[in-house]
Amino acid sequence: MAFDVIFREATLFDGTGAPGVVGDLAVEGDRIAEVGAAPGSAAEVVDARGQAIAPGFIDVHTHDDFAALVYPDMAFKTLGGVTTCVVGNCGMGAAPQPAAKAMAGAMHPGVSWPEWDGYRGYLALLEATPPAANIAVLVGHGTARLAAMGTEARAPSPAEMAAIKATLAEGLEAGAVGLSSGLIYEPGKHAAAEELIELASLMAGTGALYATHMRDEGLGLLQSVDEAIRIGEAAGVPVQISHHKASGQEAWGLVERSLEKIEAAQQRGLEVHADQYPYTAGSTVLAAVVEGGRLAGAGGGIGALTPDKVVVASTARHRDWEGKSLEALAREFGADLEATIGRVLAEEPGTTVILHTMSEADVRRVMAHPSTMIGSDGLPTLQGKPHPRLYGTFARVLGRYARDEAVLDLADAVFKMTGMPAAKFGLAGRGRLERGAFADLCLFDPKTIVDRGTFEDPKQTPAGIAMVLVNGKAVVRDSAATAERPGRPLRRAGSQ
To answer: Which range among 23-27, 81-85, 272-276, 355-359 shows the weakest confidence by mean pLDDT?
Structure first.
C-alpha cells in the first residue's frame, strides 16, 4: 500500500502515558493510517531511528486568539511541537468583537482587524484564512461582561445577564469548548461566584468546561480553589484551573494543600484538573499589576511584589525599556516608583511585564501531580521580549524536567500535553497515536530536546524538534517552519 509519509523505526509515545515502543507510523491524507508496522511504500520515508514521535502538543492555555490572524505561520508555537492552541483563556475571548479588540490592544497594538460576528464568525474566519496550528476556543466571560455592562463593579441587571448569556450560548452553538474567567482582571473581578454558576450552568451536559484564572493565586489560593470547585459542582460542569501556582514568597508551599483540594473534589466526582507553565515567573499586562495596589504590598491576587521583580517585557515604542525592572527604570528616570509607573502607563498603556514570583519546589510539585497538564500562557507580543514560555514550554518539560531531572517520566510528560488535554477539552481524534486519528505529530530527539530561550533572549526556538505535522501537512521540516497553513478550527462535538 502507498502512503503519503512513513516514519520508520521511531520510538512511539502514543499519548496514553504508556512507555514508548519502537515501530513505524504511516500517514495518509490528514490521518494516521498505520501504527506499529507500516508495510508498503510512501511518497516520503523518514528514517526516524533514535527519534521519538508523539501526538502534536496541545497548548491548553494560550492567548493566541488574535495572533492566529496576525502571525498565521504560528512559528513561535509550531517550532516547539504545538499543533493545537486553546484560545480565549483568562476571560479574554474573541467576541463580541468590539470588546475583544479593546482587550487585544496590549498584545497587538496598532493592528487593523477584519470584521467578524460572534464566535461563529471568528471560527469561519479561521477556516477562510487558516493558521498553521489548530485552534479551539473558550468563550471569554470578561469580554462578554465588558460588552454587556462595561467595567461596572456590581452584579449584572437581568438585561445585562441576558446579553452575557447570549454571548455564551452563541459561542457554545458555534463550537466553543467552554467558558473562561479572569477573576483578577477588569471586569471579571467584579463577578461573584453566583454569576459564574448561573452562566456555567448553561453548559451542563454539553461537555463544555469552566476554565478559570482564579481570584487569588497568592495567600488566598486555597479559598480560590474552593470557589472554582464550588462553581463547577453547583453548575454541574468540569473545571480547569489555569496556571496552577502559589504566587508570592509568603504563599509558597500552599500548592500542597491546593492539590489536596483537587484530589478531594475528584473523589467526589468532579472532573477538575489544572494546567501549568514550567517556570518560576509569570507574565501579564502592567496595568493589571498596578490595579489593587499590588506593588504597594496589597498582593491583589498575585502575591506581594517588589519593583525589582517586575520586568518590562514589551512596549509599543520604547524598546530601550524592555528587559529592565521597574526598580531599574525608576533609577533611570530619577523618579520614585509611583511616578515611574505613571510615566510608563501614560506613554505605553499596553506594557506587558514579567513577574518573578514563584518557587521552583512548587513548580515541580504541581508538575508531577496527576491533575496537571501543560499550557504555556504565553503572551504573543513578538515585537518585544516576551516570556520564554511562549516558545519553550513543551520542550522544557520534556528536556529539563522529564529527561534531565526526572520530575516525571517522558511518557507521562507526553500524556500531559497530548492525550490528557484532548480528553478534557473534547478534542475528538486528537492527542493519540492510533489508526484513524488526525495526523498531528511531533518528531523529536529525546536526547537533545530542550528549551533555549532566556528572559534576556527569549525568542529562541527549542532544540531537538525535527518535524511537526498538522492534519498530515508538515508545518516544521528540518527544524524550520514551512509555508503550510493546515490548521483548522476545532469545534466541540455536538455543536453546530
So the answer is: 355-359
Helix (H, G, I), strand (E, B) or coil at 355: strand
Question: Where are the extended beta strands (E) located within 48-169?
Answer: 52-55, 57-59, 82-87, 134-140
Q: Grid cell 469561519 — which residue?
A: 124
187 preceded by a cis bond (ω within 30 of 0): yes
The CA distances from residue 303 to 185, 247, 355, in Å, are 14, 5, 10
Residue written as cell 500562557?
Answer: 377
Question: CA-CA distance, 99 to 146, in Å (whole number)?
Answer: 6
By the 8 A CB rule, do 233 and 265 touch? yes
Confidence of residue 298 (pLDDT cuts 50, 70, 90): very low
The 3-state DSSP class for residue 1 equals coil
13 in helix, strand or coil?
Answer: coil
State pLDDT tens for residues 195-223.
Answer: 999 999 999 999 999 999 999 999 999 99
Q: Which three cell numbers stand for residue 199?
A: 452562566
Torsion of CA 458, 71, 399, 352, to 10 degrees: 40
Non-local CB neighbours of 220 within 8 Å, separated by 6+ positions: 301
Q: Find all residues with CB under 8 Å of 495, minimum gap 6, and list them.
A: 172, 173, 174, 175, 176
List the one residue out of 135, 137, 122 whose CA is nearest residue 89: 137
DSSP helix/strand/coil, 354 = strand
Binning the chain into helix, strand and coil, the percentages to the nearest 5 are 35, 20, 45
Cα gap 143→178, rounded to integer Å: 14
Number of C-beta neighbours around residue 280 at 10 A: 15
Q: Is 94 helix (H, G, I), strand (E, B) or coil?
A: coil
Tell me how far apart the alpha carbons of residues 231 and 328 are, in angstroms, rounded to a whole number: 42
Q: How far apart are CA 267 and CA 134, in angstroms?
A: 33
Best CA proximity match to 82, nearest among 461, 432, 394: 394
Residue 337 neighbours by CB under 8 Å, 6+ apart? 295, 307, 326, 327, 330
Q: Do 263 and 330 meet the contact criterion of CB atoms below 8 Å apart?
A: no
- According to DSSP, the β-strands at 2-12 and 21-28 are antiparallel
Q: How many CB atoms lie within 10 A of CB 319?
A: 12
DSSP assignments along 141-153, one per residue = HHHHHHHHHTT-S
Residues 140 and 191: beta-carbon distance below 8 Å: no
Cα gap 314→385, rounded to integer Å: 6
Closest CA to 97 of 132, 60, 70, 65: 65
Q: Which three cell numbers stand for residue 88?
A: 480565549
Nearest to 10 by CA among 29, 36, 34, 32: 36
